[in-house]
């Protein structure tokens, strides 16, 4: 007599599952693409292997017996595990070839991505990596034009047709040279202390620039506005006691550790929620390499990469 292990295959598993749904042998057979006589033979083999009927007549319907219901439940779990295995293998295959096209705005592109890219390359050496770093505005343009498939930015995009997901928190802080302003014990500076100071801002298209300029516009007491070509330029000028800049907390890790810059918040100023976000096109399936890179990036931010 055959055992269930002898006759247990995906066709018979699917037949039991469909029979439980339809209570009709012809409907179950049609659902899995076999003839009714073939389905009857499959049931006969299952009955023999189980040692008891797995289905029985109930009026005009064919329904599963308690034994059949047990087997259908096991079949459903087995097929789900097989499907998960297929998905995993497909993702693994996707990580053995192809190209990762990722774009990032200045903060994540300069201070977070490098270590994560290195980790990704070490784990997926057969995937080519293409990284583009620019302003938030430029990165979103690259995404919409198909130059990249994954965008990492520090602001919420309002453009239609995009999927945006927070992968970690960010914070805008003021920076200056030590002793340039009087910072309270809780890390705050009053807006009055910033009057007549030179405001150092990033290039056009930067989300941080936009927020810093709103602060400048709200208080006419500021001095000049200097437009810097990069975050590093802002930090360099701030170290010389020439001005005040506003940057991501990720951007000043090294300078703060070396005592070259101090950071502060401005009393009464709410910058609003700011996250590091992964943005993709809504109607495009995310490639396995993109998904894996995003997972590595999320993990790195959670562990405090850059801060």
Structural description of this entry:
The structure is a single chain. This protein is α/β, with parallel strands linked by helices and 307 residues long. It has three domains: 91 residues, Arc Repressor Mutant, subunit A, CATH 1.10.10.10; 100 residues, Periplasmic binding protein-like II (D-Maltodextrin-Binding Protein, domain 2), CATH 3.40.190; 95 residues, 3-Layer(aba) Sandwich (D-Maltodextrin-Binding Protein, domain 2). It is 45% helix and 21% strand. It has twelve helices and 13 strands. The strands form three sheets. It has a six-stranded mixed beta sheet with strand order 8-12-7-11-9-10, sandwiched between helices. Strands 4-3-5-13-6 form a five-stranded mixed beta sheet, with helices on both faces. The longest helix is centred in the first third of the chain and has 29 residues. This is HTH lysR-type domain-containing protein.
What is this entry, summarized?
The protein is of the alpha/beta class and 307 residues long. Helices cover 45% and strands 21% of the residues.
Helix content: 40-55%
Output the CATH homologous superfamily of the largest domain.
Periplasmic binding protein-like II
| Overall number of domains | 3
Our estimate of the beta-strand percent is 15-25%
Strand order of the largest sheet: 8-12-7-11-9-10
Question: What's the count of strands?
Answer: 13
Uncertain spans:
none
What's the level 1 CATH class of the largest domain? Alpha Beta
Q: If you average the pLDDT, what whole number results?
A: 86
Order of helices and strands: HHHHEEHEHHEHEEEEEHEHEHEEH
CATH structural architecture of the largest domain: 3-Layer(aba) Sandwich
- Multimerization state: single chain
Q: Please state the CA-atom Rg, rounded to the nearest Å.
A: 30 Å
- Summing up helix and strand content along with how strands pair, one would put the structural category as alpha/beta
Overall 3D form: elongated
CATH fold-level label of the largest domain: D-Maltodextrin-Binding Protein, domain 2
Sheet with the most strands?
A: 6 strands, mixed
Protein name: HTH lysR-type domain-containing protein
GO molecular function: DNA-binding transcription factor activity; transcription cis-regulatory region binding
Family: Belongs to the LysR transcriptional regulatory family.
InterPro entries: LysR_HTH_N, LysR_subst-bd, WH-like_DNA-bd_sf, WH_DNA-bd_sf
